[in-house]
Amino acid sequence: MNPSILNRNNVNVLGNGDQAMIFAPGFGCDQTVWKSVSESFESDKQIVLFDYVGMGKSDIKAFDSDKYSDLSGYVQDLLDVCSALNLKNAIFVGHSVSGMIGLLASLQHPEYFSHLIMVGPSPCYLNDLPDYFGGFEKEDLIGLIDMMDKNYIGWATIFASTVTNNPSRPDVAKELENRFCSTDPVIARKFAEACFFADSREELPKVTVPSLIMQCSEDIIAPTIVGEYLSQHVPKSRLTYMKATGHCPHMSHPEETIQLIREYLGEVPSKVVDPAL
């Protein structure tokens, strides 16, 4: 193990199973968002939780503006954690942008992963009409990021409500808002730019690891048409439509999230990995 990586990314390993299960948080969040879901797998999996540099209890001194100017810096964080723990054939569960981070990591080191489970993923948030609808025009995203500079607390309140899109669960929106507010605004803006202006569409056909795309209903951040695009372009992928509304089912609907992950893992074989790797 590499203690410097484990400290840098605030890595926590729990559970009793032989197979590792990595839970990766989405934009502006830390590992605690997975608590309701990850706990249910502790009896039969080795649970790996971590924070990206700049989030949660990671080592903020390790934040490098150049490294984290695009998703490759966050991909490297994930690969570093896998390497430090010597993981092989781990189940990766990533929320939102972390779905793409896991997918991109699997292109470099497919041996680290047996399955990719992506909750509300999007390969590109920008519309590229007429061929692709990501949900946002460029000026919308520029306006969103400009608001982070001018009124970060106001941005956090509005964005948390937009992301959750679930009036019946104001507690989830408040929880998300609190996480945004606990992040350094400069780092949050850098992550937002890396996340919302990324375009991973060309990488999708290269994926070799079996994957599950969990598509929420009424998800403003990753609309249904985006999940369907992913399922059409990622080999060996399965698309599951959730009853959960909004963009954070692991927080608002943990029971359904757990059930669908368990159903998928019980039905889909792992990829064959060369035992010499």
UniProtKB/TrEMBL annotation:
Pfam families assigned to the protein according to its UniProt record, in alphabetical order: Abhydrolase_6
InterPro entries, per database record: AB_hydrolase_1, AB_hydrolase_fold
Gene3D superfamilies: alpha/beta hydrolase
AB hydrolase-1 domain span: 22-259
Membership in a protein family: Belongs to the AB hydrolase superfamily.
Protein name: Sigma factor SigB regulation protein RsbQ
Organism encoding this protein: Niallia circulans
